[in-house]
């Protein structure tokens, strides 16, 4: 069985036409993208690298990595966002970028050790078995390659900020975007990464000020956070 939730795929497909509107429901993704792109590039030096973006959606991160000089494959199982991503890249003349509808597990079986960099951002909390995605991303990475994840912590503060605040009060995201029970504690993600064979390099928090409407990276991983991992040169 495919490790995907049909309701989640449908949810993002319905909003696909808004993906590249920076004032739409995807505004937070547009705002945080420069931060996460620079953070990834700081570790992986992506120019000239083979990169796969797992759960790429409409391609905001994938296209920005291609524009920075990486050769990028974006993969997702939601067809409408993929078509939006393909059209946007074509209209923008981004040549070193391709998209495919394929699961992380199937791509890992097909192209094990095929990528210098693997990114999987804002996806793990939307799938039935996130640990399987972590294993697949690890398998896709070359020895010595980099693997990056981002997700949401599971605690009372994250419920208040990411669901009550972001979806109901500030309306930064559509209601129902996230399901609290699927949020992932950093210790859980770290365990899955280690069990998959990755070396943890850094946790980084992502914070938001609703008054200034500004995002920034910090050491606070209590709500949104990212993790940088490296696949050992020898297993």
Summarize the structure in short.
The protein has 235 residues and is α/β, with parallel strands linked by helices. Helix content is 39%, strand content 25%. Helix 3 links the parallel strand 1 (50-54) and strand 2 (71-76).
CATH topology grouping? Rossmann fold
CA radius of gyration is 16 Å
Please tell me the total number of domains: 1
- Return the CATH architecture: 3-Layer(aba) Sandwich
Shape, principal axes of CA atoms: globular
Structural class: alpha/beta
Low-confidence stretches: none
> Main sheet, how many strands, which sense, barrel?
8 strands, mixed
CATH superfamily: Vaccinia Virus protein VP39
Number of strands: 8
What's the CATH C level? Alpha Beta
**What strand line-up does the widest sheet have?**
3-2-1-4-5-8-6-7
What portion of residues is helical?
Answer: 25-40%
What's the end-to-end separation, in Å?
29 Å
Strand content bin: 15-25%
Q: Please tally the helical runs, counting DSSP H or I stretches of 4 or more residues.
A: 8
The residue-averaged pLDDT reads 95
Element-level helix/strand string:
HHEHEHEHEHEHHEEE
């Amino acid at each position: 069985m495919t490790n995907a939730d049909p309701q989640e795929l449908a949810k993002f497909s319905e909003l696909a036409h808004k993906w590249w509107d920076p004032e739409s429901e995807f505004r937070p993704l547009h705002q945080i993208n420069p931060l996460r792109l620079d953070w990834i590039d700081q570790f992986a030096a992506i120019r000239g690298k083979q990169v796969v973006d797992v759960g790429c959606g409409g391609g905001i991160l994938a296209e920005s990595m291609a524009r920075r000089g990486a050769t990028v494959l974006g993969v997702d199982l939601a067809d409408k966002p993929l078509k939006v991503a393909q059209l946007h890249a074509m209209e923008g003349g981004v040549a070193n970028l391709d998209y495919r509808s394929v699961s992380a597990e199937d791509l890992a079986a097909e192209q094990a050790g095929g990528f210098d960099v693997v990114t999987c951002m804002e996806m793990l909390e939307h799938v039935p078995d996130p640990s399987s995605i972590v294993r697949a991303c690890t398998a896709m990475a070359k020895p010595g390659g980099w693997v990056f994840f981002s997700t949401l912590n599971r605690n009372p503060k994250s419920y208040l900020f990411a669901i009550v605040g972001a979806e109901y009060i500030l309306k930064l995201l559509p209601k129902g975007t996230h399901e609290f029970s699927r949020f992932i504690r950093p210790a859980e993600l770290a365990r899955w990464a280690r069990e998959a064979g990755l070396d943890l390099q850094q946790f980084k928090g992502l914070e938001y000020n609703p008054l200034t409407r500004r995002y920034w990276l910090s050491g606070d991983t209590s709500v949104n956070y990212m993790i940088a991992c490296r696949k050992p040169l020898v297993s």
